[in-house]
């Protein structure tokens, strides 16, 4: 945006903008619903139970089901993929039967954990017997399979070109994919409504900023207003 365009924007100072924000009324019930949705989706069972008792906001789901889901998620995050798969099959066996990509990623993670433990022979056997057939049936999995098996070529996997596969973030990615699948089968949203609202805030500020110079919220964590752009 050029200087001429910027100068044509309406200027709204901090005091006026804060007043406008204060004048926006949000029902407490709506806020409570968003909070409960976040607690349920992210699996904070005890917090959801306490919030239900204190605010009267119902979770809308069986909290025991959340406990099962989080147990599965934590298992993947700690590298115990076998236990996670077993618990998923106990909870909703159709999940892994219908979602081939998710099943592949879980088995890929299992291979990564074998490599992490230095069980080279077992990892090779697992790749040949379990993952290779999946790659033959689903060519879209081949690249990921080849990258994972290639880890076996490095003695120091954490400092190899494929180190990202050994990172904890890889476990988190697989755990999140599985968590989203379980939520979907339980007819729940895959992510908290709060995230959508935050995206809307960012989008709305971008749109409004084309016409108005106003104090923006740049840090969504603190929600503090920044100074005007000009």
What does this molecule look like?
- Residues 65-122 form the CTLH domain.
- Pfam families: CTLH (PF10607), LisH (PF08513).
- This is CTLH domain-containing protein.
- The protein has 230 residues and is mainly alpha-helical.
- The protein folds into two domains: 1-61 and 188-230, no CATH class; 63-185, no CATH class.
- The protein is built from twelve helices and four strands.
- It has a two-stranded parallel sheet. Strands 3-4 form a two-stranded antiparallel ribbon.
- β3 (217-219) and β4 (224-225) form a beta hairpin.
- α5 packs antiparallel against α6 (81-91), α8 runs antiparallel to α9 and α8 runs antiparallel to α11 (168-185).
- The two termini are 12 Å apart.
- The mean pLDDT is 88.
Descriptors for this entry?
230 residues, CTLH/CRA, CTLH domain-containing protein, two-stranded parallel ribbon, mainly alpha, CTLH_C, 4% strand
Strand order of the largest sheet: 1-2
| Sheet/helix structural class | mainly alpha
- Arithmetic mean of pLDDT: 88
Global outline:
globular
Let me know the number of strands. Answer: 4
Biggest sheet, in brief? 2 strands, parallel
> Radius of gyration over alpha carbons?
24 Å
**N-to-C series of helices and strands:** HEHHHHHHHHHHHEEE
Give the end-to-end Cα distance, rounded to a whole number of Å.
Answer: 12 Å
- Stretches where pLDDT is under 50 for at least 5 consecutive residues are none
Helix content: 55-70%
Number of helices: 12
- Our estimate of the beta-strand percent is under 5%
Give the domain tally. Answer: 2
């Amino acid at each position: 945006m050029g200087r001429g365009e910027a100068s044509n924007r309406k200027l709204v100072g901090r005091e006026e903008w804060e007043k406008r924000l204060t004048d926006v009324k949000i029902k407490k019930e709506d806020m409570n619903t968003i909070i409960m949705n976040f607690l349920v989706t992210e699996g904070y069972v005890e917090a959801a139970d306490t919030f239900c008792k204190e605010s009267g906001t119902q979770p809308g789901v069986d909290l025991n089901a959340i406990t099962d889901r989080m147990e599965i998620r934590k298992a993947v995050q700690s590298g115990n993929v076998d236990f996670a798969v077993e618990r998923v099959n106990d909870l909703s066996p159709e999940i892994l039967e219908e979602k081939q990509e998710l099943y592949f990623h879980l088995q890929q993670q299992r291979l990564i954990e074998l490599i992490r433990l230095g069980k080279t022979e077992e990892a090779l056997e697992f790749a040949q017997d379990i993952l290779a057939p999946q790659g033959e049936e689903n060519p879209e999995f081949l690249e990921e399979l080849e990258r994972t098996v290639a880890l076996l070529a490095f003695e120091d996997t954490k400092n190899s070109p494929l180190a990202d596969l050994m990172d904890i973030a890889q476990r988190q990615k697989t755990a999140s994919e599985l968590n989203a699948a379980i939520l979907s089968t339980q007819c729940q949203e895959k992510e908290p409504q709060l995230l959508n609202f935050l995206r809307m805030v960012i989008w709305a500020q971008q749109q409004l900023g084309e016409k108005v110079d106003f104090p923006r919220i740049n840090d969504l964590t603190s929600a503090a207003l920044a100074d005007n752009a000009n």
